[in-house]
Every structure is written in C-alpha cells, then in structure tokens.
Amino acid sequence: MALARNRRRAGGVDYWPGFVDALSTLLLAIMFLLTVFVLAQFFLSREISGRDQVLNRLNSQINELTQLLALEKSSKQDLEDALANMQASLSSAEAERSRLQQLLDSGSGTADAAQQKIGALTDSLDEEKQVSARALSQVELLNQQISALRSQLAALEDALEASESKDQASQAKIADLGKRLNVALAQRVQELNRYRSDFFGRLREILAGRDDVRVVGDRFVFQSEVLFPSGGAELNPAGRQAMSQLASAILELAQEIPDEINWVLRVDGHTDNVPLSGNGQYADNWELSSARATSVVKYLISQGVPANRLVAAGFGEFQPIAEGDSPEARATNRRIELKLTER
C-alpha cells in the first residue's frame, strides 16, 4: 500500500478524492448529529412522560388524603364538642344529686320523693358516663386514623421527592448516553472513511487508465456498455474481468476492516430514459436496472465476496447524473455505481 501511495505521489497530487472524503465525512457527521438528537429527544420525552404520570398520580393521592384528613379533623372536633357538653351535663347532674342528697339529709317529709329523684338522676348520670366513654373511644379511634393519614402523607411526599431525584438522574444519564453515542459513532465514521479511502485507492490502481470508469462523489461509476450488452443483464467478458479485479480488492479490504464495522458494498443499477421494447426480456427499465445490479452482485459472490456484504438496487432512469436526451447524456446515465457504506 505504501508503494502504491508513493506511485500516486509520483504521478501528481490528486486533490479530488480528499475533497470527496472530507465532504462525505461532513455529511455523515451531520446525519449522525441529527440521529443522536432524535434519539435523545425520544428517550427524554418517554422518560419525562413516565415521570409526569407518576407525579400526577402521587399528587392526586396527596389531594385525596388531604381531604380525608380535613374531614377526620372536623369529625374529631364535633366529637370533642359533644364530649365537653356531656361532661358539663355530668357535672350539673352531680351537683343536682349533691343538692338533693343534702335535702334528704335535712328533711324527713320529702325523703321518698327526693330518693326517687336521686335514683333518676343517678340513672341519667350512668347513661351520660356510658355515652361519654363511647365518645372518648371514638375520639381515640379518630386520633389513630389521623396519625395513619399523616404517615401516608409523609410516605407519599418521600416518594415524590425520590421520583423527582430519579427523573433528574435519568436526564443526566440520557445526556451522558448521547455524548458516548456521539463519540462512538464519530469513531465509526472516521474508521469507515479511512477504509473507504483505502478501497478507492486500490480501485484507482486496478482501474488506472480506463476512461469508462469514473469517480462521482463517494461512488465508482462503470458505464453499462463496458459490462453488459445492449438491453441485457449478463456480464460480458470485459465486465467479468473488471468485476474479478473488484472482488480481489474487496476481499483484501475485508480482512482489514474490524468485525464491529457493519459495512456493505452497494451496487446500484441505472438506465437511460429510453423505454424498452415490449419484445425484450425485461418489461421496463426498472427490471433491467435491477437485473444488472443483481448480476454484478452474483458474480462478486461467485468470486468469494460474502453475500451479506453486498446489496443490489435498481433505480431505472429516475436518478440521472446528466441532463438532456442527447446520446452522450443517455450514455452517461446508463451506469453501475459502487459505494462502500455502513449497513
């Protein structure tokens, strides 16, 4: 490879491939940044949406518990007021009983009536005590319920704080993931560009001096007349020779590219805009362009190139590189393009 590069330097400085590589790298970097931005937005929106649902559910539970707590407090206040009234009635009844007892002790004529009244007051006093005891039990139960509600509120507030903290941590992880993806994909792009440059250099050496092979952007372009007969998709002898040289270059490069780079060689078939006659083997230019691309791929496979590293595509006459209907423009548009790219 070093000798080949020295020979290229000796033949003159070729700036065009470097410009093409730089332009390709810039385009891939822009596509990569857009991809990372879309991924980050997708993960962030999904994470935030989930956190918002949890926060809304927790806020709803807190509101419900707050309302229940207010109702329990109101019930407790009513029971405490009733208990105070009962205790006041109890004190009044005890005072009345004491007064009657004094009358009983001081007078003999009204003893029986006073004794009856004292008995009635004693029964009433016992009932008031029972009611007061039940009220105290209810107040105690309400106190326990209020304590439980306060514990639930505290637990929900802790869960809410933990959820907010986890949301912030998730956002930080997403940002870090985006940075790491950026670095990893940038490295992949640089590696693929380096191997693409080596591949282009080897093809230039193999195909040096041939006017029927051109470089257009990041693609090698073969004119269809060199590879196929008119209207056909079977490689002619010159086409098989050119594809055999191409297969050798691909196999050498495949040994150098790391396994983690998922590269493919894309073979694109293109035709001119002249419709095919209905008596031919192919119905239209779509079928012809696809058949020619497939024919190249199958021949490369027969030369040992792994099938999973090849892609065939037909574009018919709908991707011209020369405008117009002149014979020269149509000849330029009848072509096979080769591009080394990542799957």
UniProtKB/TrEMBL annotation:
The record's annotation in Pfam families points to: OmpA
What's in the keyword line of the UniProt record? Coiled coil, Membrane, Transmembrane, Transmembrane helix
Top-rank lineage group of the source organism? Bacteria
What region holds the OmpA-like domain?
Answer: 216-343
Organism the protein comes from: Pseudohoeflea suaedae
Instruction: Locate the coiled-coil region(s) and give their ranges.
Output: 55-166
Q: What is this protein called?
A: Peptidoglycan-binding protein
Please give the GO cellular component terms listed in this UniProt entry.
membrane
